[in-house]
Design brief:
Layout lengths: L10 H5 L10 E7 L9 E6 L2 H12 L3 E6 L17 E12 L5 E17 L6 E6 L10 H17 L4 H4 L8 H11 L4 H8 L4 H19 L7
Parallel strand pairs: 1-3
Antiparallel strand pairs: 1-6, 2-5, 3-4, 4-5, 5-6
Helix pairs in contact: 3-7, 5-7, 6-7
């Protein structure tokens, strides 16, 4: 149920030219305590709980969409039920589904758009929600000085973390602002709550500024520790 190691972003992801995909008004939800999903990124997951196996089967048969949601603090005592979740998440399209012989599955979600929950439904073994999409204003561009700063942070991060291979693909001029900022938000060392704060930003420049503030705070904390880890 928890994420497998990330793979390299595709060329379609890096260009930001992902074709619109029809998202149903009512979608299944996949709440996790440690995953925040961002548009125009990819999320591999290993699904083993019976209720989420059924969710994947149902989504594959109709709609092709799953809403990732972050569980709120205190979820442990209610995990087998339906503990509270944050109302803003990201819808993912089932890009691939590999069903294993024992019923578990490996799936790959393509991040489509942010959503906001308006009503939850509990008739099935997994929860569903009626949502509206929360697209960001694509006309707002990232300040180039801020992008250069974040590129410098990325360079520092890559030097400190040899396993951060997916981030190497971001050092290209054709990577869109949204893909660049969302990918950094995904891969850099932020807590789930911090990533939720980034996801809830109203537009990419605001998310970038929040990310910059978080990074500066973390760098100030970690000076003299020999890296990011």
């Amino acid at each position: 149920m928890f994420p497998e190691p990330e793979r390299e972003p595709s060329s379609r992801e890096l260009s930001g030219k992902v074709q619109p995909f029809p998202v149903p008004e009512r979608i299944p939800l996949f709440p996790l305590p440690n995953v925040v999903f961002f548009p125009k990124t990819y999320l591999p997951l290993h699904v083993f709980e019976p209720r989420y196996r059924q969710m994947v089967a149902d989504a594959a048969a109709a709609g092709q969409c799953i809403g990732m949601a972050l569980l709120k603090e205190g979820w442990e005592e209610q995990y087998e039920g339906n503990p509270p979740i944050f109302s803003v998440g990201c819808v993912g399209r089932l890009a691939s589904v590999q069903v294993l012989p024992d019923g578990r599955s490996n799936i790959l979600l393509q991040g489509l758009e942010r959503y906001e929950i308006h009503e939850e439904f509990f008739e099935k073994s997994y929860r569903e929600a009626r949502i509206t999409l929360k697209p960001r204003d694509g006309s707002l561009s990232l300040d180039q000085a801020l992008r250069r700063y974040l590129m410098g942070v990325l360079d520092e991060y890559l030097k400190a973390d040899e396993e951060a291979s997916p981030l190497h693909s971001l050092i290209r001029p054709d990577v869109s602002d949204e893909v660049f900022v969302n990918s950094l938000s995904t891969y850099l060392d932020c807590t789930p709550l911090e990533k939720q704060f980034l996801l809830e930003a109203e537009h990419v420049p605001q998310q970038a500024r929040r990310l910059s503030d978080l990074i500066q705070f973390k760098l100030a904390e970690r000076r003299g520790t020999g890296g990011w880890g």
